[in-house]
Predict the 3D structure of the following.
Amino acid sequence: MTLILCECAGQARNYNMIFGSSNWLNFYNEQLTIIPSTFAVTARNATMSEPDGALSLVVDETGIHNANFDLVQDGSAQDLGWPARLASLLILPKPDAPFHYFVFVNTPEVDKQAGYVEVDMSMNLGAGGVVGSGTTWYMSNTTAKIAATTHGNGVDYWVLQHADGTDTFHAFRIGPGGLNPVPIISATGPLLSATPVPDRLSSDFWGPMKFSVSGDQLAFGFDHAPDSAGAAVFWFNSSTGTVTVRNSSLAYTAYDLDDYTGDTIAVTLPMDFTSGLDFLTTDDRLYVAYLDTSIDGSGGFFSTQYDLTVCDGCIPHTSLASNTSSVGVGTEWGADTTGGSLVLGPDGELYLRNAGSNQGFLHWWDNVPHEFNTSLGGSTLISSPDLHETWGFPLFCKRYHDSDPAWLGLREEDGRDPAFRAVPKPALNDGPTTVLVRKELPAGLYALEVFRKGRPLGSTRVIIE
């Protein structure tokens, strides 16, 4: 485990996300930094970190890796029976089982399967290993859409899938005993078309699906018609696992006021693909990124804000739209056009990745939400020499941060937490090296002991000069 020693002032938090080969976003105390990494993940990937920032798992199309990027025992894609190309990945902690995680995988158009793997990170002296053998495939005929949120009991989880070519959601409950293979099925919302092979820009298959932070709402991208993508928003009952449609007619619509009459003019433009969506932490605004794949200079990301505080039928009429990210004449598309392009970061801000080829750009959405009849506004471009070609943002459950932190140091005699703590960062995970950042600690001999969930992971002594 790679460690950075820092003073613990309050409940500082550290999260990491991947959005392309060697691109790592680190959020520490709600501050974004871009970290170079020697680990080049594949186009489909997911990470799992503890609330204090302890990196636990990195999963991509090559298999399941620990914090040092080594494959866990029996965790290669070949061992797990994964195809060479995947559709989606998601990681959840197993309820009431410290060090155990479920890795969920959806396969693309050829296979259309959903499976999971249980991983025990306490195996092999902390290097991790797969529990059992291979992948348990629990659903067939799935789309790439997968999302997760907590159950109403605060312990279990719901993993939501959508059947291809249907209007049915399948909600699978995850508890201490594992996954219940009998889903709660809800037939609601638009009828998705059956996916041909291959179908690179099918919003019905590839369009993102996400829960709101509270878990009460859900949204996904789909195709209204050929070359006309849209989005739908739903209610979700976290106690029963049932889904109910709110509105399924969201599209890229720009509202403007006529300079002469003062009337509201609505202009709806066809878009090729619904490439990203997410909610604000307040659950009262939904943001959707539509993709126009034209290469004549008019293409790019066209973003829309929807107000969710109004009546269900009124939601489309609240949209504010803008051209957030142009691609430019003749610009080639990136390696992962179908990957998610919009994400709500752990700092509560919205980030949009650029779909242009070999462009390491990230956009921060300025000053959201915006009032109706005002401009949605633009975005602040975030660039760095450490950014490479961007792939899709990972899918993740926003409410799985429920585990005890790992503390580095001796606890005070009164039982309080120590005056400093360990926060791993993937930029330094190039092997077993441990980096300790001294900060304001005085010189002397320190006895260091690592705990997680009340269990000691190891100890050492460090001299600070």
Observations:
- The first strand starts at residue 5 and ends at 7.
- The chain has two domains: 13-248+333-383, 406-464.
- Residues 1-12, 398-435 have pLDDT under 50 and may be disordered.
